[in-house]
Design brief:
The chain is of the alpha+beta class and 74 residues long. The protein is 41% helix and 27% strand. The protein has one domain (6-72). It has helices at 19-25, 49-64, 66-72, and strands spanning 6-9, 12-15, 33-38, 41-46. It has a two-stranded antiparallel ribbon with strand order 1-2. Strands 3-4 form a two-stranded antiparallel sheet.
């Protein structure tokens, strides 16, 4: 477990990730991380181009089939 401290970065708030955590995530400066909610809390995962393509396809389907999805949700 890592304790991460929030710090002011301009008008935003950021987190500095220790070198050990960067290694575990297989990321380095300039890479993109995704923060997603999960039942266990918030999950950090590195950028995955294949996942991004799948999400783009899902967004297009959800946009074009909005009415169908709305009916299915009832």
């Amino acid at each position: 477990m890592f304790a991460l401290k929030l710090t002011q970065i301009g008008n935003s708030v950021g987190v500095v990730l220790p070198k050990e955590l960067l290694g575990l995530l297989h990321v380095e400066k300039g890479d993109t991380l995704y923060a997603t909610e999960s039942p266990e809390g918030v999950r950090l995962t590195p950028f995955d181009p294949e996942f991004e393509q799948q999400m783009d396809a899902a967004r297009k389907i959800m946009k074009s089939r909005r009415d169908v999805l709305h009916e299915l949700a009832k």
